[in-house]
TrEMBL record:
Known pathway: Cofactor biosynthesis; molybdopterin biosynthesis
Coiled-coil regions listed: none
Biological process annotations from GO: Mo-molybdopterin cofactor biosynthetic process
Reported function: Converts molybdopterin precursor Z into molybdopterin. This requires the incorporation of two sulfur atoms into precursor Z to generate a dithiolene group. The sulfur is provided by MoaD.
Complex formation: Heterotetramer of 2 MoaD subunits and 2 MoaE subunits. Also stable as homodimer. The enzyme changes between these two forms during catalysis.
One Gene Ontology MF term: molybdopterin synthase activity
InterPro entries per record: MoaE_sf, Mopterin_biosynth_MoaE
Similarity comment text for this entry: Belongs to the MoaE family.
Enzyme class: transferase
EC number: 2.8.1.12
Known catalytic reactions: 2 [molybdopterin-synthase sulfur-carrier protein]-C-terminal-Gly-aminoethanethioate + cyclic pyranopterin phosphate + H2O = molybdopterin + 2 [molybdopterin-synthase sulfur-carrier protein]-C-terminal Gly-Gly + 2 H(+)
Entry protein name: Molybdopterin synthase catalytic subunit 1
Pfam families: MoaE (PF02391)
Length: 142
């Protein structure tokens, strides 16, 4: 069963919308909202990146929900949201947006950091990077 604080959990082929995440967490009792946006950058480990694609295992959405539920239960937060993009992305595109709300900023900062770190460690979404030198690399694949 989903934790009541979890407001938005999604994996989407459509461009991510920060405003959608902020709206999902709109709550007059929350004094702090910490938002993290992961974007596609033009380099990785000193190599130029021309683009990438994300692939998700069929269990990825369920695993993302579990991570959000766990964060909501472990931290003093009133709202949790996480959305991840899949498919082909260009430099500058949003790859992931996570946010938490709480009565005070400290809890929200801690929870948002734990949310993005746990998502990256546990949710089976894999990145296929294309480099400017013509090589490629899978990141996070089993």
């Amino acid at each position: 069963m989903s934790h009541a604080a979890v407001r938005l959990v999604a994996i989407s082929e459509q461009p991510l919308d920060v405003a959608e995440v902020l709206a999902a967490l709109d709550d007059p009792a929350s004094g702090g909202l910490v938002l993290f946006v992961g974007r596609v950058r033009d380099h990785d480990h000193g190599r130029g990146v021309t683009g990438l694609s994300y692939s998700a295992h069929p269990s990825a959405l369920e695993r993302l929900q579990e991570v959000c539920d766990r964060i909501a239960g472990e931290f003093d937060v009133s709202g949790v949201a996480a959305v991840h993009r899949i498919g082909d992305l260009a430099i500058g595109d949003l790859a992931v947006v996570v946010a938490t709300t709480a009565g005070h900023r400290g809890s929200s900062f801690e929870a948002s950091r734990a949310l993005i770190d746990t998502l990256k460690d546990e949710v089976p979404i894999w990145k296929h990077q294309l480099f400017s030198d013509g090589t490629e690399e899978w990141v996070g694949s089993p």
